[in-house]
Design brief:
- With 267 residues, the chain is an alpha/beta fold.
- It folds into 2 domains: 102 residues, 60s Ribosomal Protein L30, Chain: A; 157 residues, Alpha/beta knot, CATH 3.40.1280.10.
- 35% of the residues lie in helices and 22% in strands.
- Helix 4 links the parallel strand 3 and strand 4.
- Helix 3 runs parallel beside helix 4 and helix 6 runs parallel beside helix 7.
Length: 267
């Protein structure tokens, strides 16, 4: 049964608005997903959607009505609000009038390895730009990665900009947050996974690197590159040759190039 909230000062509306900030997402274990496509992706996943908030204007779309019917069948709390109230809780410039409040899911590294299969991890080492992180998550999901590891210092994977840039892929590939470099190195050694770091120094061109084994490819911070500890402990280093007059590639573009070389070699 749908609830109708008409006050901007409603306690739940204040809670929804607070999820724009990381400290409240962390404290409550919740995050928001906005827009028809992303709420649809969340609804089709195994993640627990606590609440769906929508406007009467959004309800005029058949696709939105289908999403609402789907979520109602899963006993999701449904709340209808006015456009004015929705504008108070949205984090987008052109909101589509539908939002889901989703419970965070914590993956465990021990859950993702299957015996006899070559692991294919992506490690994001202190990436700060939410657009880069979300785009790489999307690419990694498309390339069939085993999982994505975010070291401490990365931007919050549950920030709205990251979720939007991932286009819902956050719901379809295991993501592991907040690991230290030492934890990453220990895990890879324990499971015989080669760490391959992107670097311009003492490195091989990416298409000459052997990806037909268990690997974890590291992409470093936008300004500083891969951290010293991961570089020193890597089993290989790789780079993308730049043939034109450019200083570097965006890290998300680099990830797409390298991850699909992995796909090519493994097919």
């Amino acid at each position: 049964m749908t609830e109708i909230i008409t006050s901007q000062h409603n306690k739940f509306i204040k809670l929804a608005a607070s999820l724009k900030l990381k400290k409240y997402r962390d404290a409550l274990g919740l995050f928001t997903v906005e827009g028809v496509r992303l709420v649809e992706e969340a609804a089709h996943s195994d993640w627990f959607i606590e609440t769906c908030i929508y406007t009467n204007e959004a309800l005029q779309q058949e696709r939105v009505r289908e999403i609402i019917t789907d979520l109602e069948s899963k006993n999701c709390r449904m709340i209808q609000v006015s456009t004015i109230i929705y504008d108070k809780i949205t984090d987008t410039k052109e909101p589509q009038g539908i939002m889901a409040i989703v419970q965070k899911y914590a993956y465990q590294l021990s859950d993702v390895l299957a015996s006899g299969k070559k692991s294919f991890f992506v490690i994001l080492d202190e990436l700060r730009d939410p657009g880069n992180v979300g785009t790489i998550i999307r690419t990694a999901a498309a390339a069939g990665c085993t999982g994505i590891i975010l070291t401490k210092g990365c931007t919050d994977v549950f920030a709205n900009k990251v979720v939007r840039a991932s286009m819902g892929s956050i719901f379809h590939v295991p993501i592991f947050e907040g690991l230290t470099n030492s934890e990453v190195i220990s895990y890879c050694r324990q499971h015989e996974i080669d760490i391959l770091a992107t670097s311009l120094e003492s490195s091989n061109v990416y298409f000459k690197v052997n990806f037909n084994k268990s690997i974890a490819v590291v992409f470093g911070n936008e300004g500083n590159g891969v951290s010293y500890q991961l570089l020193e402990c890597s089993q290989g280093r790789l780079y993308i040759p730049l043939l034109g007059r450019v200083e570097s590639l965006n890290v998300a573009a680099s990830a797409a190039v390298i991850l699909y070389e992995v796909v090519r070699q493994r097919q």
